[in-house]
Amino acid sequence: GAVVSQHPSRVICKSGTSVKIECRSLDFQATTMFWYRQFPKKSLMLMATSNEGSKATYEQGVEKDKFLINHASLTLSTLTVTSAHPEDSSFYICSARQELRSSYEQYFGPGTRLTVT
Amino acid sequence: AQTVTQSQPEMSVQEAETVTLSCTYDTSESDYYLFWYKQPPSRQMILVIRQEAYKQQNATENRFSVNFQKAAKSFSLKISDSQLGDAAMYFCAYRTKYGGATNKLIFGTGTLLAVQP
Fold this sequence. Notes:
Chain A is an all-beta fold. Chain A has no helices and 11 strands. The model of chain A has no long low-confidence stretch (mean pLDDT 92).
């Protein structure tokens, strides 16, 4: 099946710094990528939807200036957490959608654990 | 707006036994997709099974099967011959068929399944 990678898998940063998370579709072109945030034992919360070459669409309540999303190519999307604070510590998951006979299969990356100290 | 409800926060099953996880949803659409995803301790989201609403036949994937009751808007997952590796968080999800590649998965709150040896 299709593979989505995320890098890094874990990151620790100091409060006030920025951190970038990469999401790559390894063996398919993803016109659409999704970024989720997940708290322990909770469901996935969609943060934003990004399409290649255009601005991301953010969900209500998600600060677009804090969570910068770039989808520069059909295989790469990045999430940058700017001026990170301890409350941004969480598990971030990306997902890439492949158009396959219009069924739009969606594949998930392994996630990135962000800890802000 | 569509919603997905999983009323069982936690479930437990003995190894080799059968367990059923419940999911109900609300929608005014007639055609859509329903999914069950598994999230083991590694946090990697894995697609377990998918059902298209216009198909009356219940989807099956080896030991996993669903009971899709469209009129009742119910989509339960049955795991037969449970194995230790089935222990995970299970999420039910809904997705409209319309709107193209950017339409979103709507997740339930999840059911944490424990498998007892």
